[in-house]
Amino acid sequence: MIELAFTTRIPLAVMIVTGLKQWENRAAMPFPAKGLCAMTCSKSSDAREYANFLAWAKSVFQPEAFALLPAWAQVASWRGKLVAVCEYEASYTAPTPPIWNEGYPVWWHLTNVRLLDTPIPCRGNVGMWRLPMTISSMIEPTT
């Protein structure tokens, strides 16, 4: 059963789900420092923010990577919901070279990301936080 989750904005969640972003740079070391977790999306993400992200992505990503990015209509329903699960391992050692560095000391390496078939309504929180048992029990088992 997955007991922990983190919350991010939809543009970052899209990059994590598509494999374009494998590192989260955060302020705190989660406990435990590695394991399984879920990812929720911020309710405050919006179409304008996503359009700005797509414009930026088109100018920096290779065409084949940009083609992986869904339209807003495909991800708008992610707001305020748990959308994916993954494995994480956190450390104070930055990847070389540092990627997506927001100036925080802890690096979470996210792997084996799996998008849920149906997003689950879930209030997010800062850092790595404990999922309510009612939400945790709704996550589809990995196959």
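[next item in queue]
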Amino acid sequence: MSDDPSRELLTAWRRGDADAGDRLLQLHFASLCRLFAARVPGRAADLIQATMLAVVESRERVPEGLPFRAYLLGIARRVLVGAYREQDREQRRAFALAQFEAHSRTSPSEAASRREQQRWLLAALRELPLDLQLPLELHYWEDLALPEVAAVLELPLGTVKSRLRRAKEALVETMHARPGELETITVDDLARWAAQLRWHLARSDAS
């Protein structure tokens, strides 16, 4: 029998023993807590879950001879780096949005109305499932044509078009649930909004 209980549990897990997988992940749960809680306390639970999901999906690819804990923490590090990049990206986007508003030539009341719409649209976008977020962002913010979006997502073009339509309809429905001018927003409004912001967001991401 191996001296490494993790390796024994991993072998059993690969053979279909789900309980062994649960015990294996639980064995190293404290390590993940230490890594994430000290750095991103508000998101630690989500990032731990993301790490564990990645391990579940890649358990067949743990290299022989590499301690499971090292493999697990390697994945956790990549998840953490991704979280930092996402946070930095959101901060730059918020700054770009502020710059966009500051240079707007509209009246104060119009600027306030536009700001409210943009903030709610951004918030509504983040509430969408990831498979609906990505086509929108790739098409409008990264300026990819739909066939290119399909290639990036490794999906049929028809599926991308369907998800893009569902995403825009979901955003419009969310905005219509808000009182005031947001009740009148249309799919075409979303397209114009995205086109206006894309250049500013691209500048902030590149800085």
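[queue empty]
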